[in-house]
Design goal:
Aspartate Aminotransferase, domain 1; five-stranded antiparallel beta sheet; 3 helices; about 20% strand; disordered C terminus
Length: about 140
C-alpha cells in the first residue's frame, strides 16, 4: 500500500528510495536489503515517511523505523520489548520499556529468516492490540 507524504507530494515509497540512494554508501544498500525483507514478511506493509524523513513501516500500527547514522543503521521496533527474540537480533535500546532496536554496522549481516519472524511478530502484536481496543469499546 502506498502512502503520500504531504511534504513534497511524492509517494512515501519514492521518498524512501531517494533517501536510501542519497546515502551513497553501504548504509543505503543495507537499508534497502532490510526493506526488501520487510516486504517479503509483510507484502501489504504500509510505507510512510515521518519525523524529518524517517522511513516507517506500518501494519495496524508502526512495525519499525529505519534510520541511518554515520557508522551504522538502526531498525527500531516500537513494541520490541514485547516481542520474543530467540535469535538475539535486538542489540540496542535494550533498557527501554517498549522499544528495541537492531543496529547494523558495515559488513554485518542480519539473519533474514529471524528478521522476517520479528517483523511478522510485530505486525501480529499490532493486530492483537488493535483488536483488543476494538473489543474494549464494544464491551464498554
Amino acid at each position: 500500500m502506498k502512502k503520500v507524504d504531504a511534504e513534497d507530494g511524492a509517494p512515501a515509497s519514492l521518498q524512501i528510495d531517494r533517501k536510501f540512494a542519497s546515502l551513497g554508501d553501504w548504509r543505503g544498500a543495507a537499508l534497502s536489503r532490510m526493506r526488501a525483507l520487510i516486504h517479503e514478511a509483510l507484502p501489504d506493509v504500509v510505507e510512510e515517511v515521518k519525523w524529518m524523513g524517517t522511513p516507517v513501516w506500518s501494519h495496524n500500527g508502526i512495525v519499525c523505523t529505519g534510520e541511518s547514522y554515520k557508522a551504522w543503521i538502526k531498525l527500531t521496533f516500537l513494541k520490541g520489548a514485547s516481542l520474543d527474540d530467540p535469535a538475539g537480533l535486538f542489540n540496542s535500546s535494550l533498557d527501554g520499556n517498549a522499544r528495541r532496536a537492531i543496529d547494523i554496522r558495515e559488513g554485518e549481516e542480519v539473519d533474514a529468516q529471524a528478521f522476517k519472524a520479528l517483523i511478522k511478530a510485530a505486525a501480529a502484536l499490532n493486530s492483537e492490540s488493535k483488536a483488543g481496543k476494538r473489543r474494549a469499546k464494544v464491551e464498554a
